Structures are given as structure tokens and as C-alpha cells.
Amino acid sequence: MGWDEIPLRQQLAAASADATPTLIVGAGIAGTTLAQLLRRAGRHPVLIERSSGRHPGYMLALMPMADAAIDELGVREAYRARSVATNRYRVRSRTGAVLRTDPIAEILSRYGDYRGISRGDLLNVLTTGHAPVTSGTTVTALREDPGGVRLTLRQGEREIEASFAVVVLADGLGSTTRDLLTTATTRVDTGWGGWVVWAPADEATDLGEELWGTDFILGTYPVAGAVGVFLGGDRADTGAGREGFVARVRRQVPSPGPRAEAALEAVLADPDPYFWPLTDVRANRWATGRTVLLGDAAAGFLPTAGIGAGMAMESAWVLARLLRDPHPTGSADGGPSVPGLLTSFEARQRPRVEAAQDNSRRLAHLMFRRSRAWAAVRDLVARRVSVARALGPIRELLDDLPSVD
Ligand SMILES: Cc1cc2nc3c(=O)[nH]c(=O)nc-3n(C[C@H](O)[C@H](O)[C@H](O)COP(=O)(O)OP(=O)(O)OC[C@H]3O[C@@H](n4cnc5c(N)ncnc54)[C@H](O)[C@@H]3O)c2cc1C
Q1: Which residues have any ligand 1 atom within 6 Å of their CB?
Q2: Which fold does the domain 4-58+78-84+116-187+280-372 belong to in CATH?
Q3: Which of 1, 114, 322, 399 could cross-link to 124 by cystine, CB 3.0-4.6 Å?
């Protein structure tokens, strides 16, 4: 498991044997899933990644729409071994009292697995087998020509010119390569943000829990061997620093219980916690000629429905199916060209992904507010509305999973 770091020229040489040489920019969840699926289909996509070090990682709860990719890669056993079942989801009120505990895995069981895994472990699982990547590499220029896409790749001070028949931009929510296209984006900024850290594992490895305070949210989500923590609030409040923010939480909820206490301690103890500004992004167009956006670069999610990675893997699976054996310019029997396939990919996936994103936005509206009166209303709503109902739009997507023959 794990990537095989190899020089760019080696990947370029292998790709040149393919009928439709393909570049994937960004070895995150979407890019890695796509690259590995194409490799299993006998293709040699070039996978590049800007960062050179290991990603610090965070917790992911993975919805069943990821299952098609996991199964096609033949890594379900490894996935189960490196993750934990998230059977229960609990919401606590602004006073710390339990509002409800829902059997979330049972609600989702007819669709497949619902499990907690760290991003690093998921990438390790996805890179089971041969997984070439070239790190420290990005794209600085991109031009669509009639027969292909001409790019400038940058490695440190070095620039390399290359051409590809297909280019997939999968460089995440803060994508910079998206700016090389004429694609417009819209964003929702909740005004909130928070710290993401790891706390020690406890015994309730199957329990995801959120405490919805008057002006903060404390979420704790188990993975194998640890509990992922998110402590967030309005950036006007978090801006003063974590010591003051944690003190504020403790004043509101003096006895939050051992899990939450350990989480607050972990926020204070982390020497350099990741601060996550809760904004999202939506590109108004995914496919431009032979270039296509994938994953968070196409639609990056707010965390409220915990579905960004699931949708990124689903989209990667659909794209891999469409790109398994494309004809560079369209086949004699009328099969679509690469631009036609990418347009078809966008037509299939964009409505699904944007529906999931809309659901995350609506939940954000409920969760990220700073008002005593609203918190009281929200506690009432949370008592009455089950997780099954809150996830209604996501279940509709799961009822109608994509199929590509
Ligand atoms: C704290 C946190 C918790 C989350 N929790 C959940 C959850 O519970 N469930 C869920 O489904 N989703 C969750 N998400 C969302 C999920 O992580 C994303 O939706 C998913 O990672 C998207 O995959 P991606 O490949 O598009 O982007 P990423 O996984 O972000 O990968 C992008 C990759 O591109 C690389 N890159 C960036 N710029 C360049 C460049 N210019 N050139 C080359 N490479 C570049 C990056 O280094 C990175 O490796 C969470 C996100 C965060 C931050």
C-alpha cells in the first residue's frame, strides 16, 4: 500500500503508449481513485501531485456511494481493516444533553458501508498494488488545441512541456489549475471555521457525536486508533485564538463528558492545528474540450452532510468507466470523442453532485448560526427530525446510483 514515487519522464513514457494519454492533476481522493481505476483497466494515466510531504490527514466518514470504486479496485477487505464502522450518530444540545442517537449505519445499510477512516489510511487503501505518482509537480499553463491539450508542468524551477488527449483537474477545493480555464465559480462562505485535530481513541469506536452549542460546534468522529475532532464557530470568535474559544465552550458546557473533554484538550495540545474555513465552491462548468474538473475542484463541499469524499469517489468511478477505452477523435461507428465523453460525464454527475452540495448547504444554514434563540429552536428541531429524514436527499441519490456499461 502507498504510492510508488517515480520520475515524471517514466510516467510520460508509459502514457505515450496509450491511445488517449491522460494527465490527472492532484493525488487526493478523486485523482487517486481515478488513476487506480484506469490502471486496473490497463491504462497508464500520469498522476502528478503538488505537495511533496505527507498530508497531515483528517477524519472521513465515507458514504456508500464510494463502494463501487472500492469494489472495482478490489480493496474492500483492506478498507474494512483500516476503518471503523460508524454505527451511531449522536447530537447533543447547547447544554450538552443528549438530544438523540440515531442508528446511522442501519439507516444506510441497504446501500452499503458507512465507515470512519483517516484520509491517509483511505489513500493507502486506494493505492494498494502499483500506484505511480510524481510529487512536487503542478501545471502552470494549459492550452486546448484541436488534437490535444498542451501544458506546462512545473517541478521546482524546471518547466516541462507536454501534450495529452485528456486532462483531469482534481486539485481540490482550493484548485489553482481551475483558474487556467475560463470556468466561473460560485461560493458559499458560512463565516464559520474551526480547528481539526486528533484525540486519543476511546471505547465508543462506533459513535460519531456532535455538540451543537449556542455559538460553536464540537464534532468527534472515530477512525481506527483515534478520534477526529472538529471545534468550530464564527470566525469573528475563533479569530481570537483557541485558548479563548475553548474557555468559552467550557463556560457554556461545564461538564461536557469525557469524549468532549478529551477533544477540547486535543485542540489545545496540538502544536499546529489545521484551521478549516467553512466555505464551499461550485464550478459552473466541468468539461472544457478535453479538460475536465473532478472532485472538490468541480464542487467542493461544506462538511455538514459528510459526503464530499463519497461523491468525489463516485464521480471518479463514473469518469473511469467512460474513459476506459475512448477513441481520441470519435470512432468510425459513431462512438463519442473525448470531448463528447467529458460532456456526457458532466451531464450525468453534475446534477447529482450539486444536489448533494445543496443538502450540505441547507444543513449548514441550520447548524452554523450564533444566537441563543436559534440554538433553542435548533434543539427542538433536532429532537424531532431524525437523521434518516435529514439525509433524505442523500438517500435519494443512493437509491439511484449511477451505472455505466
Ligand atoms: C477536515 C475535513 C473533514 C472532512 N470530512 C469528510 C467526511 O466526513 N466525509 C466526506 O465524504 N468528506 C469529508 N471531507 C471532504 C473530503 O475530504 C473532500 O471532499 C475530498 O477529499 C475531495 O477529494 P479531492 O481529491 O477532490 O480533493 P483532495 O482530497 O483535497 O485532493 C486534492 C489534491 O490535489 C493536490 N493539489 C492541490 N493543488 C494542486 C496543484 N496545483 N497541482 C497538483 N496538485 C495539487 C493536493 O495536495 C491534494 O493532494 C472533509 C474535508 C475536510 C477538510
Answers
A1: 25-31, 48-51, 58, 60-62, 138, 170-172, 176-177, 196, 276, 295-297, 301, 303, 306-310, 312
A2: FAD/NAD(P)-binding domain (3.50.50)
A3: 1
